[in-house]
């Protein structure tokens, strides 16, 4: 029986490359990669049991957390992280025309943001047009002499590569995660969770963070998102680095945080890898 894996399509996106690597690392049975339009749709398909797994970007080294992914994980319960992969991102500018004729640049909003300084320095008068994915942008500029797309260099052999790489930051990379509704994992070198606080009072967040510190856990990331219930109320996403001695402490963390929190979501433990 095949395992249907949703990812941000169409084919040719960085998400597809990450999905192929993640299903290989996780050794999923007969994986069937299924592209979907929009990150929200990718997670919704998993939440609604229309696929068995999903691959989404969760954090970029330049632009930070991918807000659509974070909001979707908070909205849907019983979705867990089963593996993470850091993928280097090297963008190219491609078109059917030449760089002197470009007046519009299309790409996913994250890609446009990651190349904003280069675009401002080299084609300052070009209009930036967001698309659902880098692959969609590549498809939309084919045959156009005034449009260019930002995407992976090997995503299209029908366009001219006008410049490569065009990242503003040389070490640009994105962390992708493999999501599943299967049982929460308890093994790995990483762990993630999210929580909302009962009180928006001075020191409330510090008390929660002290729970992590008192257990001797190393927090490698913290990010806040609006709860969308009222102004000034936030949801906090945290990542922890784990070694073998930390597993029991992580299990105790939920118990320690419970008196301080309205809601806690444990995304589980998992292994993180990097692509060279």
Annotate the secondary structure layout:
Elements: E1 3-8, H1 14-26, E2 31-36, H2 39-47, E3 53-60, E4 64-65, H3 67-75, E5 80-88, E6 91-95, E7 104-107, H4 109-114, H5 116-122, E8 127-130, H6 134-141, E9 147-152, E10 160-163, E11 173-180, E12 190-197, H7 204-214, E13 218-226, E14 234-241, H8 247-257, E15 261-274
- The CATH class label of the largest domain is Alpha Beta
Taken together, the total number of domains comes to 3
Largest sheet geometry: 10 strands, mixed
What characteristic shape results from the CA principal axes? globular
Number of helices: 8
- In the CATH classification, which architecture of the largest domain applies? 3-Layer(aba) Sandwich
Q: What proportion of the residues is helical, as a percent range?
A: 25-40%
Low-confidence stretches: none
Helix and strand element order? EHEHEEHEEEHHEHEEEEHEEHE
Question: Nearest-angstrom radius of gyration?
Answer: 20 Å
Mean of residue pLDDT?
89
| SSE class | alpha/beta
Instruction: Count the E strands.
Output: 15
The CATH topology of the largest domain is given as D-Maltodextrin-Binding Protein, domain 2
Amino- and carboxy-terminal Cα gap? 32 Å
What would you note in describing this structure?
Helices cover 27% and strands 37% of the residues. With 276 residues, the chain is of the alpha/beta class. Helix 2 packs parallel to helix 3. It is built from eight helices and 15 strands. Strand 13 and strand 14 form a beta hairpin. The protein has three domains: 95 residues, Periplasmic binding protein-like II (D-Maltodextrin-Binding Protein, domain 2, 3-Layer(aba) Sandwich); 73 residues, Periplasmic binding protein-like II (D-Maltodextrin-Binding Protein, domain 2), CATH 3.40.190.10; 85 residues, ACT domain (Alpha-Beta Plaits), CATH 3.30.70.260.
